[in-house]
Amino acid sequence: MARDTIRAMSDKPASSTHLRDLARLRRVRDRIDREYARPLNVEALASDIGMSAGHLSRQFRLAYGESPYSYLMTRRIERAMSLLRRGDLAVTEVCLEVGCASLGTFSTRFAELVGMSPGAYRKQQARITSGLPSCVARQVTRPIRNREAAETGPQID
After folding, report:
1. Of 99, 104, 13, 109, nearest in space to 66 by CA
2. Helix-strand-coil split of the chain, %, nearest 5
3. Rounded Cα gap, residues 108 and 102, in angstroms
4. Are 80 and 118 contacting, i.e. CB atoms less than 8 angstroms apart?
5. What's the CA gap between 71 and 19, in Å, rounded?
6. HEC string of 111-143?
7. What is the Rg, in whole angstroms, of the alpha carbon atoms belonging to the chain?
């Protein structure tokens, strides 16, 4: 009986700590969503919420399925896709507008997430999304990571 009482008492602080950590992770995710175009790094994000960079990265991955850096780059690429669909900015201007300092890194990550270069995307999307409201175009063209894509074909066990 005493063990059950001790176990129940020890669960409360763990649960409370877990909820506090989730709230801090949500603040980090919200900050990334708001400030994606600013220079952000995991160390600064972690120190702002009182965690180490390693702990933040591990906990963020557990909570959201990807690292803080990956989440940030996905937000940047989503915004870049929107700017490229407009067609009035060069790829380099879009790269800088979304907060990427390196055109090479931007182009590589864009191709990984979208499946084509930013320039090719701009040309293709100008034709595909013409006449669609921007809110519909954004939903239709949202990048899908490999882990999010639905499996196709029969399952063989």
Report:
1. 109
2. 70, 0, 30
3. 10
4. yes
5. 21
6. HHHHCCCHHHHHHHHHHHCCCCCHHHHHHHCCC
7. 20
Per-residue confidence in pLDDT tens, the chain, 157 aa: 444 544 444 445 567 777 888 999 999 999 999 999 999 999 999 999 999 999 999 999 999 999 999 999 999 999 999 999 888 899 999 999 999 999 999 999 999 999 999 999 998 876 776 676 777 776 666 665 544 444 444 455 4
Residue type (1 letter), 144: I
CB 110 within 8 A of CB 80: yes
The Cα 121–Cα 141 span in angstroms is 10
DSSP code of 77?
Answer: H
pTM: 0.71
**What residues have CB less than 8 Å from 140, skipping those under 6 apart?**
129, 132
CA dihedral 4, 7, 12, 14 (to 10 degrees): -160
CB 107 within 8 Å of CB 118: yes
